[in-house]
Amino acid sequence: MGIPIPKISIDVRAGAGFGFAAAVVGGGIRHVHVAQQQQHIQALQVSEASALERAAAAERSNAQLTEEAQDQQRTRDLAENQAEEQRDNVKQQWATAQAEWSKSLEQAQLSHDSLMQSLQRQLHDALEGRTAAE
């Protein structure tokens, strides 16, 4: 009976040693897994931060491009308004010049008609004076 006790004792010790070793190895493996998971989480966090930075940069770039496009549109609108205003001014000046030209032409025609009538009277009077003198 003495033999079984040491055997049990050895088994217990051996089992305890193996269990401890297994626990140490298991804990080490778990520790490695936890460390790997932490590294993976950190890598994901870095990747997420980088993606957020790129998204923010893209948003800033988009905002800048939108602002530039709006500036260009305002510039185009202003240029179109100025061109339309100039076109209207030229049309108005043309209409004014045409009216003045028409008025001048009418006055010239009236002056011409008056002059022709005066010359015809003078010619008629001269012819009558000649006829009367003869």
Helix and strand arrangement:
Elements (H helix, E strand, L loop, with lengths): L3 H130 L1
Task: Summarize this entry quickly.
This protein has 134 residues and is mostly helical. The chain is built from 1 helix and no strands.
Describe the protein's architecture and organization.
The protein is mostly helical. The chain is 97% helix and 0% strand. The protein contains 1 helix and no strands. It has one helix at 4-133. It is rod-shaped. The relative contact order is 0.03. Mean pLDDT is 83; it is low at 1-14 and 20-24.
Residue stretches low in confidence (pLDDT < 50, at least 5 long) are 1-14, 20-24
Count of runs of 4 or more consecutive helical residues: 1
Instruction: Give the oligomeric state of the chains in this entry, treating copies of one chain as homo and distinct chains as hetero.
Output: single chain
Class by SSE composition: mainly alpha
* Overall number of strands: 0
CA radius of gyration is 56 Å
Order of helices and strands: H
